[in-house]
Automatic annotation (TrEMBL):
This is AAA family ATPase. SUPFAM superfamilies: P-loop containing nucleoside triphosphate hydrolases (SSF52540). InterPro entries: P-loop_NTPase (IPR027417).
C-alpha cells in the first residue's frame, strides 16, 4: 500500500500510539486526504501487531464506504455496542389495543477487543433524546461508545476518523467525537493529527472545498467569497437562469438526461431538508414518466439500518444486514396490503429488487412499507410504529387466541403484581427501589423538595440510565413477550418490512459519505453566510466525484464574476414588455445607488434602463437601445450589489459594439 508523506506520518504516529498508554487517537482530514485508505492501513498495522480489532462506522453510508477498502466485517456503532433485548409494549385494560411501543437497546460491552477503529466520527451524536421510542443505552451515543469499548476501565484504545468540516449530527454544531476537549473532560489521554490535503485531481472541486473549509475554521472569513463558475466542475444555476422555477427545472432536466444517458445512480440532488428532497423526487419521477405509485425502474434507498432482514431469493429465503443509505433498483411490484386503525394507515407492497452495487443483479423479494414515499420523511411516525406492532399483535392473537391469557398466568406465577411494580418504570415503587440502589452505589441524588415531583421523577430516571446497575428491571423474572410473538417479531415479513425513500434526491445528512459522479446542490433558501450553510456546501461538494451544480446558494456564492449569456430573442422581448417601468418602482437607497451607477454606464454604451423585475434577493434590469439586454443584479448586506449575468441574443454578443462596451464597463463595476 503506497501512502503519501502525510499518511505515512499519521501511520507512524498511530504505531507509537498503539504501544503507548494513550487511550484515544483522533485522525481528521478534508475530503481527498485519504481517510478511507488510512482505515485499511491501520487495520493492516493492527493485524501485523496481533491486536484484536473491530471496525465500526457512525452511519450506514459510512459503513458501506469502509466495506469498499477492507475485507473484514464492518458494522455501525449501534449494531456493535447495543443488544436488541425486548420491546416494551403498553396495552389497554382489555389487553386488545396497543397504546405505546418503545424499543429498548441495552448496552453490550465488548471486553475482548483491544482496538476500535471508528470511521465517519463526524456524525456521532452525544445529545440525549429521552423521548424517542427507540431507546439506545443511556441515549448518548458517544458516552455509550466509551462505556461499551471499556477505554476508561481497561487496556482498550479508540481511533476516531472523520472530517471536521462536514455537517455533524443534526443536534450538534460541531462534531463532539473529533474534539480533544471531550476526551480530556473524561480523563482520557488523547492525540490528534490532521492529514494534509493532496493535490486536487478533479478540476476546481478540491480547491473549492478547501476554501469552504477555511471559511468554516475562521469566522473572520465567513463572508461572501468568489467561487468561479468554470463550466466544467462548478455550475452556478443562479447565474445561468433568471427565475427560480427555471433553475429548479434545469436540475430536473439535467438529472433526467444524465440518468437516461449514463444509467441510474450516476447523479444525486442534495438538499438541506426532507421536504425539498421529496419535491425533487416527485418532479424527477414525473419527468421520467413514472406513475404516481411505486413502479419497476424506481430507485430507492433504505432509510434505516435493518439487521437480520428476512428476504426471499429465487434460491430460497435469506437474512442479511442492510445499512441505511443502501440503494436498490425496483424490478417488479406485487400484491399490496393495508392495515388501518383510528390513528394511522400502513401501506405494504411486495417488491422485487436488486442492490445497485451488485453487478450480478441478484434478485430479492421483500415486503415494503410505502408510507414514506410521498412524505419525504425518513422514518415512521410514532402512530405508525404503534400501528405496525398492533397489526402484528392482532395477527398473533388470530393464530393463538389463548396465548396471551396463558402468558399472563405464567408471569403471575413467576412474579406477583406487587413485586413487579418495582420492575415497572411507570410506577412509584420502581423509583423507590431505584433510589435505594443509587444510594448503595454512592450516587448523589437530587432534592425532591426543590425540583417538584415530576422533575424529580425524570431526574431519577435519568440517573438510572446513567447507572444501569441501579435499574430494578434487571431483577425482573417475568418474560416480556410470549415465545410465539417473539418469533414473529424476528421473522414476520410485514413487521420487518423495509422502509425506503426515493433515491433521486437526498437530505444532506443522509447523503454524507456517499459518492456520485454528478451532484446538484439546492440550498433551499437564500440567506447570509453561516457555519451551517458552509458545512452543508462542503459536505455536498464532498459527495461529488466530477462536477457540482448549485441553486439558491445565497451569499456563499454571491460574488460570481459577470457572465455573458445568449438569450432567446423572442423570449427576451416578451420579458422586457412585461417588466415594470422603472419610474413606477419604488427604490430604496441601496437600489437607487446601483441605478445611478448603471445609468452612467448605460449612457456611454447608448442604452437605457427600460424595465425592472424585483425578486426577494435580486433585481432583473432590462436595457434597450443600441443593445437589448437583461442584467441580473444580486444584493448582499455584506458586500452590497454585485452583478451575476448579462444576457442578450447571440447576434448582439457577436457583433454589437455597444454591447461590448457595456459588458466591459460592467466587468469593471464588478471589480469595483
Amino acid at each position: 500500500m503506497v501512502l503519501t508523506a502525510s499518511q505515512q506520518t499519521a501511520l507512524d504516529k498511530i504505531s507509537d500510539f498503539l504501544s503507548s498508554d494513550e487511550k484515544v487517537f483522533i485522525l481528521t482530514g478534508q475530503t481527498g486526504t485519504g481517510k478511507l485508505k488510512m482505515v485499511a492501513a491501520i487495520q493492516q498495522l493492527a493485524n501485523q501487531l496481533g491486536i484484536p480489532t473491530k471496525l465500526m462506522a457512525a452511519t450506514g453510508v459510512a459503513a458501506s464506504a469502509v466495506q469498499t477498502v477492507v475485507v473484514d466485517n464492518v458494522q455501525t456503532i449501534h449494531r456493535s455496542i447495543y443488544q436488541r433485548a425486548h420491546d416494551e409494549v403498553d396495552v389497554n385494560d382489555q389487553g386488545s389495543q396497543i397504546t405505546a411501543v418503545q424499543l429498548k437497546f441495552p448496552l453490550m460491552p465488548d471486553t475482548a477487543t483491544r482496538l476500535f477503529i471508528v470511521y465517519g466520527a463526524t456524525m456521532i451524536s452525544n445529545h440525549e433524546n429521552a423521548q424517542s421510542r427507540l431507546q439506545f443505552g443511556s441515549g448518548k451515543l458517544l458516552d455509550d461508545l466509551l462505556d461499551a469499548t471499556g477505554v476508561r476501565t481497561r487496556s482498550a484504545q479508540l481511533i476516531m476518523i472523520g472530517d471536521e468540516y462536514q455537517l455533524p449530527a443534526a443536534d450538534a454544531s460541531v462534531p463532539p467525537a473529533l474534539s480533544t476537549s471531550y476526551y480530556l473532560d473524561h480523563d482520557l489521554p488523547v492525540e490528534k493529527y490532521e492529514l494534509a490535503l493532496q493535490t486536487a485531481t478533479i478540476g476546481n472541486l478540491g480547491s473549492e472545498r478547501q476554501q469552504l473549509a477555511a471559511m468554516i475554521s475562521d469566522p473572520a472569513k465567513q463572508q461572501p467569497q468568489e467561487f468561479v463558475d468554470d463550466n466544467q466542475t462548478l455550475f452556478n444555476l443562479d447565474q445561468r437562469y433568471s427565475s427560480d422555477p427555471e433553475r429548479q427545472q434545469a436540475i430536473v432536466d439535467q438529472f433526467v438526461n444524465d440518468q437516461r444517458h449514463y444509467g441510474v445512480g450516476t447523479g444525486c440532488v442534495i438538499t438541506d431538508g426532507n421536504d425539498l428532497a421529496n419535491n425533487y423526487n416527485q418532479q424527477i419521477r414525473q419527468q421520467l414518466g413514472m406513475p404516481k405509485q411505486l413502479a419497476a425502474g424506481d430507485l430507492l434507498y433504505f432509510t434505516r439500518n435493518q439487521y437480520d432482514l428476512p428476504l426471499t431469493t429465487p434460491q430460497g429465503p435469506v437474512t442479511m444486514d442492510v445499512f441505511a443509505g443502501t440503494t436498490i433498483c425496483v424490478t417488479g411490484v406485487g400484491e399490496t396490503r393495508e392495515y388501518a386503525n383510528q390513528q394511522c394507515r400502513l401501506h405494504f407492497q411486495q417488491v422485487q429488487f436488486y442492490f445497485l452495487d451488485d453487478r450480478t443483479r441478484q434478485s430479492y423479494t421483500a415486503a415494503m412499507i410505502t408510507n414514506l414515499l410521498m412524505t419525504g420523511e425518513s422514518r415512521l411516525s410514532d402512530q405508525e410504529a404503534v400501528g405496525l406492532y398492533q397489526d402484528l399483535y392482532d395477527r398473533f392473537k388470530q393464530v393463538a387466541p389463548d396465548a396471551m391469557d396463558e402468558f399472563r398466568a405464567q408471569n403471575q406465577q413467576l412474579e406477583s403484581d406487587a413485586v413487579h411494580r418495582q420492575h415497572d418504570a411507570r410506577t412509584n415503587e420502581f423509583r423507590q427501589a431505584a433510589v435505594q440502589r443509587l444510594q448503595q452505589l454512592g450516587v448523589t441524588l437530587p432534592d425532591k423538595d426543590q425540583l417538584g415531583a415530576q422533575d424529580y421523577n425524570q431526574a431519577i430516571n435519568s440517573l438510572v440510565r446513567e447507572h444501569p446497575d441501579a435499574d430494578p428491571r434487571q431483577d425482573c423474572k417475568r418474560q416480556k413477550l410470549p415465545a410465539g410473538l417473539r418469533n414473529m417479531l424476528k421473522n414476520d415479513p410485514y413487521y420487518n418490512a423495509i422502509t425506503v425513500q426515493y433515491a433521486y434526491a437526498w437530505n444532506c445528512y443522509r447523503a454524507e459519505e456517499g459518492r456520485w459522479p454528478s451532484v446538484y446542490v439546492d440550498f433551499g433558501y437564500t440567506g447570509n453566510v453561516s457555519e451551517h450553510r458552509l458545512r452543508f456546501a462542503y459536505t455536498a461538494f464532498s459527495c461529488a466525484e466530477q462536477w457540482v451544480a448549485v441553486r439558491n446558494a445565497g451569499s456563499i456564492f454571491r460574488k460570481f464574476k459577470l457572465n455573458v449569456l445568449a438569450a432567446n430573442q423572442n423570449k427576451l422581448a416578451k420579458e422586457i414588455e412585461a417588466a415594470a417601468p422603472v419610474d413606477q418602482v419604488a427604490l430604496n437607497s441601496q437600489e437607487q445607488a446601483l441605478f445611478d451607477r448603471l445609468e452612467l454606464l448605460c449612457q456611454e454604451a447608448g442604452v437605457i434602463i427600460s424595465g425592472l423585475d424585483r425578486e426577494p434577493t435580486y433585481l432583473m434590469v432590462y436595457l434597450t437601445g443600441a443593445a437589448t439586454c437583461r442584467l441580473q443584479c444580486y444584493y448582499s448586506t455584506k458586500v452590497g450589489w454585485t452583478t451575476a449575468n448579462l444576457a442578450t441574443d447571440q447576434g448582439t454578443i457577436d457583433h454589437n459594439q455597444a454591447f461590448q462596451t457595456l459588458s466591459a464597463k460592467l466587468r469593471q463595476l464588478e471589480e469595483d
